[in-house]
Structures
1.
Amino acid sequence: MRTLIIALVAALSATVAQADTIAVTNAHIHTMGTAGEIDNGTVVIRNGRIVAVGANAAVPKDARVIDAKGSLVTPGIFVTGTNIGVVEIDLVPSTNDSATKSPDISAAFDVQYGVDPNSTVIPVARQAGVTHALVTPGYSGDGERDLLFAGQAAVLSLADGIEPVMRAKAAMMLELGEGGAARAGGARGASILALKADLEDVRWFMRNRGNYNSGSARDLRLSRLDLQALIPVVQGRMPLLVKVHRAADIRGVLKLAREERLAIILAGAEEAWMVAADIAKARVPVLLAPQANLPDRFETLGASMENAARLQEAGVTIAFSNGDGHRVREVRYDAGNAVAHGLPYKAALAALTINPARIFNVSGTTGSIERGKSADLVIWTGDPLEPSTQAQTVIIGGIEQPLDTRAQDLARRYRDLNTTMPPAYKQ
C-alpha cells in the first residue's frame, strides 16, 4: 500500500510539473516570429504551450514568475546534421549507432531506433541552450559497402526525461561528390548513374509489388527494405538530404533533383556561395558549418567563411550544423563567426532556430516564440553568439530543464577525497 501511495504522489507531482504556469518577465525577446523583437516583454506559458507573448502580456496570478531582468530570450537552438544521442564515444564501437555495415540495409537504416535519451552528451548540449537536433546517419567507413544511401534522419527534442524522437524519417541521407564516387567505383558519373538506377528500381517496385512478391522481379540492386524506404523519396514526400561540397557537384545535384522531381536539401556545401543564385532559384535549403574555410581536399578548395552571408544575401534558406554531438554547443560560436563575416545578426539567429524548424517541417510546433507553440526557449546571460555567454534558464515543452551534467556531478562527488565511498571504490 505504501508503495502504491508513493507512486500516486509521484504521478501527481509529474502532472503538476507538466501543468505548471510560468511567466518570463522583463525580457528582451527575439521571437523569430511575426512579432519580431520585443523589448521588455513577457512570455506566458501554460501546459507546455505559449499562451501569450508581448510587451503588455498579462501575468496570471497562478504563474511562477521568472524575472529575466532585461536578459535576451530566444527560441531554443536547433542544431542540424549531428550524431548526438547515437554516438557516446567515437572509438568505442558498441556506443556508436550512427551507421550500419549490413549489406541489406542502407536507405532503410533508421537512426531513430539507436537514440539514447540518457546519453551523457545530451545534458551538455542542453546546458548550452540546444533544445532540438536533427540527427543524421553516417557511413560505416569500412569500404566494404557500395550502397549509396546512409539512411533516415530524425528530429529530436533534448528535453530531460521524455521520448526524444520528435519527428522520425525527417530526411533520407545521401553523400555524393568524392564520398559518393568512392562507393560507386571511383567516379562521380558512376554515383549519379547508380542513384538514377536505384530510383528507377523503386518506381518499378511500386508498380510491380505482385511480381516482386511472387519472385518474378527483374534484377534489383537494393533490398526490399531499402526499396520500401525510398518510396517517400521518389514521391517527393521525404526530402533527400545530400551531402555535397564543390560547386560543380551542387549544380549536378540540382539538375538531378529537377529531372527526378525530388525534394532535396544540401548539406556541407562549402562551395555553395559560387552557385548561390542557382540554389536560390531552385528553392533548396542548405545546412552548413559556417566556420568551414580550410580546403582539406580538392572539392573544398573554394571554402569560405563568407559562405553563409553570400547564400543568405542570395535568398537561400540556411541552417547551421555541427556533426560532432560532443561539440554541438559550439554551433552558436560558429554563428557568431558567420556574423563577423557578413551574415546579418538576425539571419544568424534564424539559422539557429526557425530556419531548421521550417526545413524539417516542425515549425508549427517549435522554432519561434509565438502563441500556440511549444514553450521552447532560453534565457541568456548576454549575447548568445558570444562564447562567454551562458544559458541561465532553458525551457523545453514548458518545463524548466536541469542544467547539470555528468562531468559536474563527478566533479562534486570527488572534490573531497575524504568522502566515504562504497566498498567498490576502495579497491
2.
Amino acid sequence: VRVGERTYPGFPASAVGLSDPAARVAFFALLPDQDLNERVEVFARDAAGNQSTVDLPDYRVFPKPFARSRIQVDDRFLQRVVPAIAQNTPNMTIDTSDVLQGFLTINGELRRKNGETIAALAQKSAPDMMWKENFQQLGNSQVEARFADHRTYLYQGKEVDQQVHLGFDLAVTANVPIASAQRGVVVHADYLGIYGNCVIVDHGLGVQTLYAHLASMDVKPGDRVEKGQTLGRSGMTGLAGGDHLHFTMLVNGQAVNPVEWWDSKWMQDRVFRKVKEAGGASGSEAS
C-alpha cells in the first residue's frame, strides 16, 4: 500500500489465518505530516516487473487536532544530556564545549539518524500477527506529552528549535518496571541517541513498539516476550527532562497514534473485523 510517498509492505495473508495464497495483508497509516487528501493506493508487482495500481476505495479521513507546547531548556539540562549523549554516540561529532549547539545537533541531525535506524528495523518484522487483542498502556501512568505534540524549544527566552514529538510520555514514579505492550520479539535493546536506553519489540506484519529513556534493560535482541513482561526500568537516559517512559507505536517504522492501538473497540473495528470479512470473501485483501 502506498500513502503519498510512503510505502507499506504486504505480507502473506496466511499470517492472519486466510487460506487464499494470493491474498496479502498490510497495515498502513496516514501520518500527521501528510495531507488529509493524500492519495492511498494498492499496487502489485510480479517477478517480471509488471505493476498494477488501484486507488483504495471508500475511505474517509477525519482531521485531528494536535497539541502545541513551548519547552524551556536551561544550562543545567544541557550540561546533563549533551555530554552523555555524545559519549554514547561515538560515530557522530557533537559539540560538548558549546552545549546549546550540541543540543541542536542532537535534536535535529541525531533525531533524523535515529529515525532512519528505527525505519530500518521495520525490515526485520516477522510475517506473523503475534497478537489477538489490543495493546496495553503502561499501568497507572500519567500522560505528560501526547502523540504529534508540536514543540517549540526556548533557551534564555529565545526560540532555538522546533520538533514534533512522535510518541507518548508516560510517568508513574522513578525506576518503575516497563511492561511490553504486547507479545513479540525484541529487535533492539541498546543505546539509541535521543531515546537513550531503548527497547524495540516486533509484533509482526510491520507493527512494532518502542520504549525509550530506560534506566536499565532486561532483554536482548532475539528474546521472545509476552504481553506484560518486564523489558526494563524507567529512567531519564537520552534527551529526557525527567524519569518517564517514551512510548511509540510503529507501523513499518512510522510513528502512529498509540491511543487507537490501546483501544479494544478500535482494534475490533479496524483490524480483527476486517480480517474476518476478508476471510469470508474469496480473493479479498485485508488491510
